[in-house]
Amino acid sequence: MVYLAFILHMHQPYYKNLLTGEAELPWVRLHGTKDYLDMALLLDEFPDVHQTFNVVPSLLEQIEEYAAGRLSDRFLRLTQKRASELTPDEKHFVRENFFSAELNRVVSVHPRYYELFLKKHEDYGFSDQDYLDLQVWFNLSWIDPYFRANIPELRSLVKKGRYFTEEEKQAVVARQFSILKEIIPAYKRMQDEGKIEVSVSPYFHPILPLLFSSFAARDANPNTPLPKTIFSQPEDAIWHIQEAVKFYRERFGDAAVGMWPSEQAVSMDILPSLVKSQVSWIVTDEAMLWNTAKKIHRDGRVLYRPYGVKTKNGPLTVLFRDKYLSDLIGFEYQHWRTTDAVDNFMYHVLKIHEYFGDDDCLVTVALDGENAWEYYRNDGRDFLRALYQRISEATYMKAVTVREYLAGHPVRHSLPSLVTGSWIHGTLNKWMGHPAKNAAWECLAEARRSLSPQELQDERIMKQVHILEGSDWFWWYGDKNVAFDELYRLHLKNLYRMIGQEPPACLNQSLDPTSPY
Q1: Residue 123, pLDDT above cutoff 90
Q2: Name one Pfam family in it (predicted).
Q3: Residue 457 resides in a domain
Q4: pLDDT at 480
């Protein structure tokens, strides 16, 4: 029997400005209406398909604050404002930013939305009705197609298409918030029913090995240029782990905790802290297995099973994902016809079954659970429904949660150690080594070093530090991502202001020397 463990990772960076209390970007709210709830509810149609959903606590924290009305963002404020009352600057912002959706799969499939897109690019003026329709379509298009088709007032708005009223716009916003409120309760219900397992990542999604020491980057790749100032704060890594476990238990009331280390980045240094926090299993990329067991060529009999790794605090179960199958879903099948993509996936799993014969195996398919679907037709729902139907009908495979599999299949294999690396090329170079990435680490190290012993005990100040340790800021440096550069520098400036210091002047310009901004 092929046991298939889907692990879908749900993550957005921490966009909230701790000093203003407002989110700088709207992506938690918008992905919250498009990805997190419907992905789980879809499984209600397929009771034999069980999955693991990995969530980042800082993502759920922001969802909770939106749902409770404690968090807003500029996009939301300008949506709620009457179109006829928008100032010229606000109209410019709406016109420039409210087409932030995938052009071919989202904008162009809605005639009025696409008409406005063309009108903008042909430099025609917008009427108040145009701005109102744009306000509605930006928010409506980010709501998952399943909800747009099955919630009557949303279905009628899609059919109407244009000439929306202010009242109809507010109805769309109200539905956004009702969807956000359902996410965590739905996950809790479905875990209690055994349909899903919820696992977590470290609290603000840091690269744990790099928090232990910048030298981890050279453990993964000896040629990595290091920052001038070495960052080494093991206690911060431990905080992210412990707080994530605490958050999970408070929301989901379960003792057993699985963890997806941020970006599947692992090292031997982090494993004892995971065990001490009672994390029962982790998942990482198959590259970690092959780099650990260098003499072994890629072999399903080695890959498709869990391993125990001994630490000073006890053993930890480690799963290695099948990178090829995971990336087919994450990046390739979006270009295929639905039936061809599903046939291809099932063919691969059938071949695995034939290879193992009567023996059981665990195939781990772990991928981003939100970003891929906007590039699929119908936000991926057609593909997923067809895939889940075929899995339900297959006699040689069973889709299980990680917990389910481990409960029935005790770990029988072990590794003496685990190399340092991540799911991006098996190294940590996506977060350290580039001059801009290193400059960001140097700024963080300098800011943290400036904290007094009293400030190190201040929860609000340390929360800002932990936000700055998130992986996303370092990921984007070197790629000329203006928004994330600005947001990282904003978080750094806020840290200095919290401790009563003037932010360094260097934070007033991009940390990326190659950036034109």
Answers
A1: no
A2: Glyco_hydro_57
A3: yes
A4: 83
Alpha-carbon distance of 491 to 238, in angstroms, equals 21
**How confident is the model over 387-433, as pLDDT tens digits?**
999 999 999 999 999 999 999 999 999 999 999 999 999 999 999 99
Please tell me the distance from the alpha carbon of residue 52 to that of residue 195, in angstroms, as a whole number: 9
Q: Give the whole-angstrom CA distance, residue 467 versus residue 15.
A: 9
CA 370 to chain centre: 7
For the record, the structure tokens of 49 come out as 């398909």
- Let me know if 452 is exposed, middle or buried by CB neighbors in 10 A (0-12, 13-18, 19+): exposed
How far apart CA 443 and CA 214 sit, in angstroms, is 14
Residue 360 pLDDT greater than 80, yes or no: yes
Tell me which DSSP letter residue 206 carries. B
Backbone phi, psi, residue 405, to 5°: -65, -45
The predicted model scores a pTM of: 0.96
Residue 504 tokens read as: 């360094």
| Two structure tokens written together for 390 | 């075929």
Residue 256 reports pLDDT greater than 90: no
Say if residue 312 is exposed, middle or buried (CB neighbours under 10 Å; 0-12, 13-18, 19+).
exposed
pLDDT tens by residue, 152-173: 999 999 999 999 999 999 999 9
Domain hosting residue 448, numbered range: 435-508
Block residue for tokens 């605490």:
246
Tokens of 184: 């965590």
Phi then psi for 11, rounded to 5 degrees?
A: -155, 140
Report the domain count for the chain.
Answer: 1
Alpha-carbon gap, residue 231 to 110, rounded angstroms: 49
Q: Cα-flanking dihedrals φ and ψ of residue 252, to 5°?
A: -115, -5
Among positive and negative, which fits the CA dihedral 353, 356, 359, 365? negative
pLDDT of 515 reads: 61
Check if the beta carbon of residue 292 is closer than 8 Å to that of residue 420. Answer: no
Asked if residue 110 belongs to a domain, the reply is: no
Residue 340 has pLDDT above 60, yes or no: yes
**How much of the chain exceeds pLDDT 70, in percent?**
99
Q: H-type helices in 127-285, by residue range?
A: 128-141, 145-150, 152-160, 166-192, 208-212, 216-220, 234-252, 271-276
CA distance 152 to 155: 5
Closest CA relative to residue 242, chosen from 271, 219, 276: 276
Residue 164 belongs to some domain of the structure = no
- DSSP strand pairing (314-321 vs 307-311): antiparallel
Q: What is the DSSP letter of 331?
A: I
Maximum separation of any 2 CA atoms in the chain, in Å? 69
Q: Is residue 277 part of a domain?
A: no
- Rounded alpha-carbon distances, angstroms, from residue 367 to 257, 272, 324, 372: 19, 25, 11, 9
How many whole angstroms separate alpha carbon 281 and alpha carbon 52? 12
Angle at which helix 459-468 crosses helix 234-252, to 10 degrees, equals 100
How many angstroms separate the CA atoms of 272 and 276, rounded? 6
Following DSSP, what letter does each residue of 441-468 receive, concatenated? HHHHHHHHHT--TTGGG-HHHHHHHHHH
